[in-house]
UniProtKB/TrEMBL annotation:
It comes from Cyclostephanos tholiformis. Residues 56-143 form the GST N-terminal domain. Residues 147-294 form the GST C-terminal domain. InterPro entries: Glutathione-S-Trfase_C-like, Glutathione-S-Trfase_C_sf, Glutathione_S-Trfase, Glutathione_S-Trfase_N, Thioredoxin-like_sf. This is Glutathione S-transferase. CDD domains: GST_N_Ure2p_like.
Length: 297
């Protein structure tokens, strides 16, 4: 089928071989075959009537150890806030349970409930950066509340993370690891397109960190906590089944400033704990709290 295209005289070209169907619905079947296909629908809302688990703490966190989830758990650990962590299995569709949707209508992790909201009443929280800003402002830490210039710079990096680093890295990971096996040209196009953009984003960050310890004002802040997990995902995650890793494929070791910064952050105990909260690999949502029984003698 020829696509709609024109030359300089407005005549139709015959050498363009793809054109969209009348409706996107005609293409839905072609998106099948990826690991998350069963979750993909064009509509929102609950798909099953299941209540959220609740603990006794003031803060209830509903998450998984993806980069977006790790952002929030690192902050909560840094703040020393008492919170209950509940793992949400996105592979099993638990983000579409009615209880979760009541907290986050967008059905994405992380989400949280603060039982002591601004008016003393519970408040539902969603979107990782919004959750982080809420708690940092509530406890007045890591937020440059008394430095307007630094606060603005911090927010710019957080928005950069939400609009650029996270989505582009996630898109790269989808095509590199999760897209349908038989979509060769599609996978190569997507991997090249988003891989190149991820490299550009890393270059932006790496150049900014030249001669710096932290992203803003030489002080540890929300900006560092937000940017770290997605960069660390490139260093350690997204491994193709053939064994090629994102780190090798994208030459992540070239970003010396970022690697030095990330290694430094990983020395923080709160960061180490935050990366383990609601881990895919552990049944316990805070595995460092698990008491290992001592065998009796």
């Amino acid at each position: 089928m020829s696509a709609a295209g024109g030359n300089e005289n407005g005549a139709m070209n015959d050498d363009v071989t793809w054109m969209p169907p009348e409706k996107v619905e005609d293409l839905y079947a072609k998106a099948g075959g990826n690991r998350f296909a069963s979750n993909n629908r064009p509509t929102s809302g609950a798909r099953s009537d299941v209540a959220l688990p609740r603990g006794d703490s003031q803060v209830q966190l509903y998450s998984l150890s993806t980069p977006n989830g790790i952002k929030v758990s690192i902050l909560l650990e840094e703040l020393g806030v008492d919170y209950d962590a509940h793992k949400i299995s996105i592979m099993n569709g638990e983000q579409f349970h009615s209880g979760f949707v009541s907290v986050n209508p967008n059905s994405k992790i992380p989400a949280a409930i603060d039982m002591d909201g601004p008016d003393g009443q519970p408040i539902h929280l969603f979107e990782s950066a919004a959750i982080m800003t809420y708690f940092a402002d509530k406890y007045n830490r890591y937020n440059f509340s008394s430095n307007g210039r630094a606060r603005q710079e911090m927010m710019q990096w957080i928005y950069f993370q939400m609009a650029n680093q996270g989505p582009m890295t996630g898109n790269f990971g989808h095509f590199f690891v999760y897209a349908p096996e038989d979509k060769f040209e599609t996978r190569e196009y997507g991997t090249a397109r988003y891989g190149m953009e991820v490299q550009r984003i890393c270059d932006v960050m790496d150049k900014h960190m030249e001669g710096k310890t932290y992203f803003v004002n030489e002080e540890y802040s929300l900006a560092d906590m937000a940017l770290f997990p997605w960069f660390d995902q490139l260093r350690k995650g997204y491994v193709h089944k053939c064994g090629i890793s994102a780190a090798a494929f994208l030459s992540v070791d070239r970003y010396a400033n970022l690697n030095t910064w990330a290694d430094m952050l990983l020395q923080r105990e709160a960061v180490q704990r935050g990366t383990q909260v609601c881990s895919w690999a552990h049944e316990d949502t805070k595995p460092w709290l698990k008491v290992v029984p001592v065998p009796s003698t």
